Amino acid sequence: MSEKRNCNSGNANSQKRKKFKVSSGFLDPGTSGVYATCSRRHERQAAQELQLLFEEKFLELYGDIKDEEDENENDKKEEELSIEDQIKKELQEIKGEEFSKHSSTGETKKKDPITFIDLNCECVTFCKTRRPIVPEEFVLSIMEDLADPKNMVKRTRYVQKLTPITYSCNAKMEQLIKLANLVIGPHFHDPLKVKKDYKFAVEVTRRNFNTIERMDIINEIVKLVNKEDSEFNHTVDLKNYDKLILVECFKSNIGMCVVNGDYKTKYRKYNVQQLYESKFKKENDKNEKK
C-alpha cells in the first residue's frame, strides 16, 4: 500500500491555503465526488496535481466558506430545509440507514469538502466531495477553463480523464434503481427543467466489478428514463445524444451522473490530455499557416 501523502509540507504560502486530506479505503454508498484516471504507477502524482487544481476551483466558486457556514445555516428557509431533508432521506435509504427528521439541524463535525481517496487500483484515483460542491457542475467548470483556447498552460502531467459522480450506492439492483431515480429525475422528468424530449445514452464503466451485468444496468436505467407515467418521450441515441448517463462501477460501489452532449464533442469526454493535445495541435497548425 502506498504511503499517505503529507499535506503539511511546503512553504509559508502553501500553509495559507486550505488543506485537503488524503485517506485510503473503499467508497461508501451515498458518496459524491470525481473519479480520475491517470498514467500507470502515477496515482499519487495525479492526486497531487488534482489537489492544486480542485483547490483553486473550489476557492474560485465558493470562496472561504468556513466563516459563513453558521450564518448561511441560520438563514435557510423552511422550504429549503424541507428539500434538503428529502434528499438526505433518499440518500440514507440508499445507504440503508434510518432517517431522522431533524438530522439536518443536528450538530455534526465539519468535514473537508474535498478528500482524496487511494482506491488501491492501478490508473485510477478518487476525490470525495461534500457540499457545497456539485460534482458535475464542479468538473464542468474545470473543463470549461481547460478548453479555453486562450489558456495554453498545461496544468497536469499525469491526469487523464475526469468523471463526476453525483451520488453512489451499494452494488444491488434495488439500490441502483433508487440511485437512478434520484440522479436522473431532475434531468429527464422535472417539467420545470426539462423543456423537450431528449436523445440520450448510457455509458457503463466497470472496475473490479462483476456483481451486476453491464447490459442489466443499461436496460434498467433506460426503463427508468422512459417510465410509463412520464410526460416526456426520450429516445436512445448512442451517437448524437443530448444527455449521457455515466455509470461508474467499482468493487461494491456504483456511482452515477448525467452530463450534456458537449461532454463528447467539445470536452473530449472530459479527457484532460486529449483536450490539451487538441488545443496544441490547433495552435501549431495556426502558426504553420502564418
TrEMBL record:
<feature type="region of interest" description="Disordered">
    <location>
        <begin position="1"/>
        <end position="25"/>
    </location>
</feature>
<dbReference type="InterPro" id="IPR004114">
    <property type="entry name" value="THUMP_dom"/>
</dbReference>
<feature type="domain" description="THUMP">
    <location>
        <begin position="147"/>
        <end position="260"/>
    </location>
</feature>
<dbReference type="GO" id="GO:0006400">
    <property type="term" value="P:tRNA modification"/>
</dbReference>
<dbReference type="GO" id="GO:0003723">
    <property type="term" value="F:RNA binding"/>
</dbReference>
<keyword id="KW-0694">RNA-binding</keyword>
<dbReference type="InterPro" id="IPR040183">
    <property type="entry name" value="THUMPD1-like"/>
</dbReference>
<protein>
    <recommendedName>
        <fullName>THUMP domain-containing protein</fullName>
    </recommendedName>
</protein>
<dbReference type="Pfam" id="PF02926">
    <property type="entry name" value="THUMP"/>
</dbReference>
